[in-house]
Every structure is written in structure tokens, then in C-alpha cells.
């Protein structure tokens, strides 16, 4: 699927960069352009593609400080500059636009829905979102921002692919420590999805192309992406159980949104050496996903790829009923109530010194 990426905010820009680098490294050619948008000038310096600094008249290139309402306002004010950056990038060959953002901060969570809405108004290709949910320990502000952004983003996008940071965090590792590895894992999954149907080694026996992705996401709402891989046997017959094993792990333990198994539609893609992919295994995996998700719209196919491993990629469309998602929304609501009951800081900067909370030294 030939796609143009738009990274909004710090997390969105970094993940868009990782996606571009993965696509180039694998030689897929699925990413046809990228733009980074931010209110913080420093966060745009390391992006290897065109960047747009918005909100200069309001925040002077210093960011919005986690205020996603301000992030939405400045994005709306400078939206024409953002749209101008896409001139010549979204061409007749573009099959989708992917707006990438972390949902916990200010610029990404506030600005991504604004950008998505404007893109849908102008272009006639699907505009998808790739949103990153904050981890449980990232603070109340991030939870509230993500909850508000999620409700808006999913309404504006043709479909919103969600990634839960906690799904990729190693035991004992903070989210901050794991950002780079998390981005790499996301890029591998999304990069393979976008590459489906592109010109690669071999010819798939059962073709997976961009129309399969579009049809899986056609009903909109929230989507999830599962992935798992294993060493492959040299012949297809020896890999039937391997395909089934990776399919189970991709859905049950390797999903970007854990516990999301009830879906409206699904796409199962098995990637690996053409001669090592068992047609019987792919069809069996497709039927198993059909049973597990309760969906009658489960598509499947193979993706020829030069590798000594077999990988199963599962795209789920319409996973709003996920227990994990419901738990997150409740967490966001609780965080919002907590913020509402927290006493406001005194407006007088000197008031902090005129209290009895700490004893004077003298």
C-alpha cells in the first residue's frame, strides 16, 4: 500500500522516521513521502524529511507544554501551511495517508485529529490514524489527553490503528527507556502491513494487496495489529504447524492492543520465502482467526519475502469492544476526575512562600 506519512508531535515524528527507515532498509518502497509537524522546533531537527513548525506566533517554537487544546488550536490556525507541505507528495499513485501521533502529549494528541479532518476533506484516498496510547505510569495528564484525543481521532479518521505502549514494554523497563525498541517493533509491524501488495521477491500464490487492507478497515473505528515470527523449515509441508503457532501468538500475545480478539473484520498475512509458505497452513490459520474473532470477514494470503523465518501479521478492524480499551478509557476518566478535584495552584507566584507547609530555616 503506497502511503504518505505525517508525523504529528514528538512521538509521531520519531515513529514516522522509524517507519521511513524500515521501509528503506527492507527495500519495500511502500512509503512514498513523509512530513513532520510540531510546535517544538527542537523536536524537528533530527527528522530526515520535510518539517513544518506550527504555532510560532503563540508558543515561539517551544511546544504547547502538554496542552492538547492549545495543540488543536495552533494546528487549525496553521493548517494551510501543513497542507502546502503535501503538495506533490500525495499523487495519483498514493493509496492512503497515515497520520502518526502519540496521544498523551499536547501537539500530537491535539493536532492529529485536526490534520486528519482536513486531509479527508481534500483527498479522496483513505486517511488512517496510527495512535500511541500512553503507559499506565505516564501520569494523569497523559491519560486525560489520550482519552480526549482518542474520542476525536477515531471519529475523524477512516480507521485508527491503536498501539498500547504497555504491550511492548519489558518487565522492569520504564516507558521512557523502551521508546526506541517500542518504535522499532511498531515500525516492523506497520511497515510489513504497508508493504503488502508491493513489488517484492517472488509472486504470492494468494495475493494480498492494498484493497485487502482497505476492505478490512472499511467500517472504520479502532484497529489493532498482531505479529509473531519463528524459524522456518525449508519446505512448505514442514511449516503448517509453524504458521498456526505464529498465528495464535500474533493474535493472543503479539497484538498492538492486547485482549482485542473480537473484531468486525480481519486480514491474515503470512510472510516468508515463497516455497516455505504452506497454503494449507495459511487457510487453516484464516479459519482459526475467523473462529476466534467471531467475524465472517476474514481475508488471508501470503507475502513473499527473503527470510529464514516465517511471520504472521494479523490486522483486526473494529475492535472497540476490547477489554483493554475499555480499561484505558476508564483510567482516563478517573484521571480527569482526579485533576478536577486537585486544588488549583495559587495564581500569585509569591504565594508559595507564604504558607506553613515547611518551617523556615531562620
From TrEMBL:
What domain of life is recorded for the organism?
A: Archaea
Q: Which Pfam families match?
A: CetZ_C (PF21011), Tubulin (PF00091)
Chain residue ranges for the region called Disordered: 329-362
* GO cellular component terms given for this protein: cytoplasm
Main location group? cytoplasm
Q: What keywords appear on the UniProt entry? A: Cell shape, Cytoplasm, GTP-binding, Nucleotide-binding
Q: Report the subcellular localization.
A: Cytoplasm
Secretion signal, residue range per the UniProt entry: none
**Molecular function per GO:** GTP binding
Which GO BP terms sit in this record?
regulation of cell shape
Residues involved in GTP binding:
10-14, 106-108, 138, 165, 183
Q: Which SUPFAM superfamilies match?
A: Tubulin nucleotide-binding domain-like
All copies of domain Tubulin/FtsZ GTPase, residue ranges: 2-202
UniProt lists compositionally biased (Basic and acidic residues) regions at 329-347
Q: Which CDD domains has this protein been placed in?
A: CetZ_tubulin-like
The record's HAMAP family line, in alphabetical order, gives:
CetZ
Q: Which family does it belong to?
A: Belongs to the CetZ family.
Q: PANTHER family from the entry?
A: CELL DIVISION PROTEIN FTSZ-RELATED, TUBULIN-LIKE PROTEIN CETZ
Its biological purpose is as follows:
Involved in cell shape control.
The entry's protein name is Tubulin-like protein CetZ
Organism field: Halobellus rarus
Q: What is the lineage of its organism?
A: Archaea, Methanobacteriati, Methanobacteriota, Stenosarchaea group, Halobacteria
